[in-house]
């Protein structure tokens, strides 16, 4: 909870004042402060949004403000605890509540709603849970929903077929669906996510659909791999099965824009032998040239 809240506070106020944020330094400060708190028997140290907002409203812009707060707190503890005992607890609650209300940015929420309704409902759900159940429950639910949303995007990523456009013939992305091809006998397919167990079946299914519904018999498929940086074990198994199926159908698969990290993963999963080292390329144009050469060779009697 401390890490989550402190990170959110740091990012929010760093963005507001156009300052560079070093998350590692923030975490280092937290663990050092909490280690000192544990050894000295003091309260847990946290990056409090409300206290930070109060400091900013008071004009705090540097660490001098923190030293000033320390001195003031020390003076209060030494000389003014007696008068403070008559201060009603609701006064402190009212101050924190007023500061927290001032941190709610309705315009930002409306902007999120216009641009990303999913994020808007996530933020609104988190706010409701914080009000109804508490901060810890709200943060945990926000983390769970965010992870679910991320996995959902990775499970069903954007896919596209690259097609020539205009007089120059430059390639443009068209959302993948049956009936598309790059040129007769050739499809350039882009899968916009890492390949892992949750989406590898989608990858294979899309490739087979493009093959079955293509206007002309497909001889080569070029996978544009720039969005793919990682392959897990299950995805490697599915890719091997797909390559075997394509080979039986007489279709050759090339991989363009293969990063060193992706190639290392392919080596680790023993995919290079199944794909063929000659079918892996660091650039898309070289993969495309090899695929067109393969089509021409197959067409030559």
Please identify the structural class as seen in this structure: alpha/beta
The coarse silhouette is elongated
Number of domains: 2
What is the chain-wise order of helices and strands? Answer: HHHHHHHHHEEEHEHEHHH
Based on CA atoms alone, the radius of gyration comes out at 28 Å
Mean pLDDT across all amino acids: 85
The biggest sheet amounts to: 5 strands, mixed
* Low-confidence parts: none
Helix content: 55-70%
Per DSSP, the total helix count is 14
Report strand order across the widest sheet. 2-1-3-4-5
Tally of DSSP β-strands: 5
Strand composition percent: 5-15%
**Head-to-tail CA distance between termini:** 69 Å
Keywords: Membrane, Transmembrane, Transmembrane helix
Membrane topology: Multi-pass membrane protein
Protein name: Sulfate permease
InterPro entries: SLC26A/SulP_dom (IPR011547), SLC26A/SulP_fam (IPR001902), STAS_dom (IPR002645), STAS_dom_sf (IPR036513)
Task: Report on the architecture of this protein.
This protein is α/β, with parallel strands linked by helices and 301 residues long. It has two domains: 2-154, no CATH class; 157-299, Transcription Regulator spoIIAA (2-Layer Sandwich). It is built from 14 helices and five strands. The protein has helices spanning 2-16, 23-40, 49-57, 63-79, 81-84, 89-103, 106-115, 117-132, 135-155, 200-213, 233-248, 260-268, 272-275, 284-299; strands at 159-165, 170-175, 186-191, 220-224, 252-256. It has a five-stranded mixed beta sheet, with helices on both faces. The longest helix is centred in the middle third of the chain and has 21 residues, at 135-155. The chain is elongated and about 100 Å long. The model has no long low-confidence stretch (mean pLDDT 85).
